[in-house]
Design a protein that fits this description.
The protein is α+β, with helices and mostly antiparallel strands. The chain contains twelve helices and 19 strands.
Length: 354
Amino acid sequence: MKNIEKQNLIIKKSWENKKRTFKPEAISLSHEELLEVSYLQPEELLPLVVKPKLTDLNLKIWAQSNMEFIEANLLRHGGILFRGFNVSTQTDFEQFIDSISSRLMPYMEGATPRTKLSEKIYTSTEFPPDQFIALHNELSYVMTWPMNIWFCCIKPANLGGQTPIADMRKVFQRIHPQIRKRFMEKGWMLVRNFGDGFGLRWQKTFNTTDKMALEEYCRKARIEIEWKGDNRLKTRQIRPSVAKHPKTGEMVWFNHIAFWHISSLEPKLCEMLLAEFNEEDLPYNTYYGDGSSIEASVIDEIREAYQQETVAFPWHQGDILMLDNMLVAHGRNPYEGSRKVLVAMGEPFTRTDI
């Protein structure tokens, strides 16, 4: 009996030692086993659509281990739509962003109203829902812009509310070579007037109420300023019209020329502003870099190039759209009902072409 008890004791100790030394082997699954990668339309490569094959696949954890896949496809396609992952809250979105970006950006020199929800998360532009927001590359007119921008749909609109996108490599190719040449030689100028009751106040745009701080910021940002009374301000900034992507080396149409042009406003609003202001006193307008007016036919061709390359799709709850902000422009379609889309910007890049 004592021998049996002794053997059992030996077996028990041996098993406990094995448990202490046992290390489970990691199971590595390929992208093909974890993800379904496709396109919204067979002939349209923007955006790349990434869906999970496993219902409990955690987007944050997967993204942390697959940055090479994300970065390579972002540069190739310009945009990635993550769809079908378990994303339902602002916290889920922030966790994903934190997992792939260590350099998020504040919204500086903004032109449209939006609400700051956390340190780097904002609402999408808070324009009235019946208004269309023209396609643009975020902050293309500043010295430092975000290379990446993310949108997260917490609640899609009842009708409309898509975020149309366009590949700016293709837009660049569509614009007539003579027009491209003219803008590449002259650049473009943005003129803004603050303090007349239209648009954002300069305090909101530049995130300061200190005039000296504003003047110092504008000096560094190559923005010419002119005070017109105690609280009225005119700014002028000249920027290149095209850019070479720092990673792919591709040429892109990268500006706010059509977006800021007075003709982009709704006809009634445009007529009202022109009845009240001289052209040089409009809330904003764009010109060639030498200050001369841009022909209406040129603006029309630029708009048509955007239109020809525009892709739009309905939001699904939980969608995250990641864009290379230089390769792809974005906008917003009018909508009905409530809509909640969050925005984050990251990977700041400072221009050296001025």
